[in-house]
Specification:
nine-stranded mixed β-sheet, 6 helices, 11 strands, alpha/beta
Length: 259
């Protein structure tokens, strides 16, 4: 069973600057980590491999430093890893991102199952996974809290708003998973030492079947950001010292009608 897991490197802080001209996050110099939701997808893939054999391949679209999250996936047990990095891919919206990833996955090979986290912490659209499946013309299910192999496909339980729905999808298919599906394993120190020299395959637009740059990045994005800016903070604070702090706090709470 061959499984591809989409992962992403995201900022590890919410204090990220924005390019006012392009509306794109400025990631240079910002501490990053693997998107937390992708850890659940990776854990799901590793457990399915343990039960049914096969391989787990991870891939991410991003700058060269995104190799760090691929290596983290190696430490957890992934077999192969790819970074799809090309300046012509930058600034993509949901449509262009999902199309890029569909082309990227096809450039690697054929997979029975594609797994994604339900969303990313820097975008929060929860649309890229299903959109990849639409571009690839394969069935998909979102918000899965359980995934199990059933014959020539997978059976999933989907957490909808008021009900849990069960669906069966034939291979190949794509599933996005919820964060309560499994507890992600910790990276293994022994595995980390064993894979320290394991290569990460870097690929650009020229490796795709469709190499038309107008289909990718900003030029391939029908969504145009008119204006984006960091939220304004109007929090005020005071520092009190001395023995009268409790009394001052009480008077302040009375003024605000909290007491």
């Amino acid at each position: 069973m061959d499984i591809f897991v989409c992962i992403k490197q995201v900022p590890s802080t919410n204090k990220v600057q924005v390019d006012e001209k392009t509306g794109v996050l400025i990631r240079d110099g910002v501490a990053s980590k693997m998107n937390p939701y992708d850890l659940f997808a990776l854990e799901t893939a590793l457990r399915l491999r343990e039960e049914h054999g096969g391989r787990v391949v991870v891939g991410t679209m991003g700058p060269p430093q995104a190799q760090a999250v691929v290596r983290e996936a190696y430490w957890m047990g992934a077999d192969e890893g790819y970074v799809f990095s090309d300046r012509r891919l930058g600034g993509a919206d949901v449509l262009a991102t999902s199309y890029t990833l569909s082309q990227a996955i096809r450039s690697v090979g054929d997979f029975d199952l594609i797994l994604c986290g339900k969303q990313t912490t820097d975008g929060d659209t929860a649309q890229v996974g299903p959109a990849i499946a639409e571009h690839m013309g394969i069935p998909h299910a979102a918000w899965a809290s359980k995934v199990s192999v059933d014959g020539a496909g997978v059976r999933v339980e989907q957490q909808l708003q008021d009900v849990v729905e069960t669906a069966w999808l034939p291979f190949p298919c794509l599933v996005t998973v919820e964060q309560d599906i499994y507890t992600p394993r910790l990276p293994s120190l022994l595995k980390r030492r064993a894979v320290k020299d394991k290569p990460v395959d870097m690929r650009g637009l020229d490796a795709f079947l469709d190499t038309d740059p107008s289909h990718y990045g900003l030029t391939g994005s029908p969504t145009q950001v008119e204006r984006i800016f960091p939220p304004q903070s109007d929090v005020e604070h005071e520092t009190w010292e001395g023995d009268g702090s409790a009394g001052r706090l009480h008077e302040l709470l009375k003024k605000w009608k909290f007491v």
